[in-house]
Amino acid sequence: MTATEPEARVPRRGPAPVQGMGMLIGLLFLVLAALELMTGAAAGGGPRMLFGGLAVSGVWTVVHLLTGAAAVFCTRSPRWAARFLLVAGACYAVAGLAGLLPLPDVVTEALPLNNAGICLDLAAGTAMLILGAGWLRRGPARPR
Question: Residue 90: CA atoms inside 13 Å, Cβ hemisphere, count?
Answer without folding.
Answer: 7
